[in-house]
Write a structure and sequence with these properties.
It is a single chain. The protein is α/β, with parallel strands linked by helices. The chain has two domains: 134 residues, Rossmann fold, CATH 3.40.50.1000; 79 residues, Orthogonal Bundle (Transcription Termination Factor Rho, Rna-binding Domain, Chain A, Domain 1). Helix content is 47%, strand content 10%. Strands 3-2-1-4-5-6 form a six-stranded parallel sheet, sandwiched between helices. Helix 1 packs across helix 4. The two termini are 16 Å apart.
C-alpha cells in the first residue's frame, strides 16, 4: 500500500491552514538560528539556484523566494526540506500534532495487522511525513509504516516516479495499491502499472468531482486482502 497525505490520510485544511502558516511565520528565525547546519545550508543554496539566483545570494533574497513559494504551494524540494525541519521542531517544542482522519488511522492499523506493507508518498519532505505520523492526534503511527517517499524520488504526476518507488520497494508495480485524492497522480501511478483508488472525502473533494479510478469516501470502504 502506498498512500498520499493531503486529502487522503489527512485533511487538506490542516496542511494549508495550520502547517503552512506555522512554517511561514517561523522560517526566517529558523534559518537564522540553524544557518550553519548542513541540511539548512544545503536547502538555502538549492533554493537560490532553483530561483535563478547566485548560489551565494543573500539570505534575505532567498527567503523572499521561499515565502513566495510557500504562499503559492510550490512543490520545491528545498522548501519542503525546510518546512519539515521547522515542523519537526514544532512537534517537540510547541505541542503541534498531526491531523490524521480517524478512519485512516484505523485503516493503517488494520492493514498493518493483516500483513500489508505500508509506504507514504507525499510532496512534503520525508522528515515532514515522519513527524506528522509520529506525532499524530491518534498517537505514534510510525511503527505501521515501512518507508517514505517525497519529491526527491520524482514529481507525483509522472509515471517514472511510481516505477522508481516500486523498484525501491522491490515489488512489481501491479502489486502496489496507491491511494490519493488527485486524479493526475493516480493516472501517473496507473501508467506505471500500479493499482489505484481515489479518495473522495467530503471535506476535501470539490462538488461534482468525478474520477476514472475506483473510489472511496473513507478507508473504511477499502477492502484490501494481502496475497496468501
Amino acid at each position: 500500500m502506498l498512500v498520499d497525505i493531503e486529502g487522503t490520510t489527512s485533511t487538506i485544511a490542516f496542511v494549508h491552514e495550520v502547517l503552512f502558516p506555522y512554517a511561514d511565520a517561523r522560517l526566517d528565525a529558523f534559518v537564522a538560528a540553524h544557518r550553519r547546519e548542513p541540511e539548512v545550508a544545503g536547502a538555502m543554496r538549492d533554493s537560490a539556484v532553483l530561483a535563478g539566483e547566485p548560489a551565494g545570494a543573500p539570505d534575505t533574497t532567498v527567503l523572499a523566494h521561499l515565502h513566495h513559494w510557500l504562499a503559492n504551494d510550490v512543490k520545491a524540494t528545498p522548501l519542503k526540506t525546510l518546512q519539515g525541519l521547522i515542523w519537526a521542531e514544532g512537534y517537540v517544542q510547541s505541542g503541534l500534532r498531526g491531523h490524521v482522519y480517524p478512519d485512516a488511522a484505523a485503516g493503517l492499523r488494520r492493514w498493518h495487522a493483516a500483513g500489508l506493507v505500508l509506504y507514504v508518498y507525499s510532496s512534503g519532505s520525508v522528515e515532514a511525513q515522519k513527524v506528522l505520523f509520529g506525532n499524530s492526534v491518534h498517537g505514534d503511527l510510525s511503527p505501521l509504516l515501512r518507508g517514505y517517499f517525497d519529491t526527491t524520488t520524482g514529481p507525483k504526476r509522472e509515471a517514472a516516479s511510481y516505477a522508481s518507488i516500486a523498484a525501491a520497494i522491490g515489488v512489481a508495480p501491479l502489486d502496489v495499491v496507491f491511494l490519493s485524492d488527485v486524479d493526475a497522480e493516480l493516472d501517473a501511478a496507473r501508467g506505471a502499472g500500479m493499482q489505484t483508488i481515489r479518495l473522495l472525502r467530503p471535506a476535501d473533494t470539490p462538488p461534482g468531482a468525478t474520477t476514472t479510478h475506483p473510489s472511496a469516501t473513507s478507508f473504511e470502504q477499502i477492502d484490501i486482502t494481502p496475497p496468501a
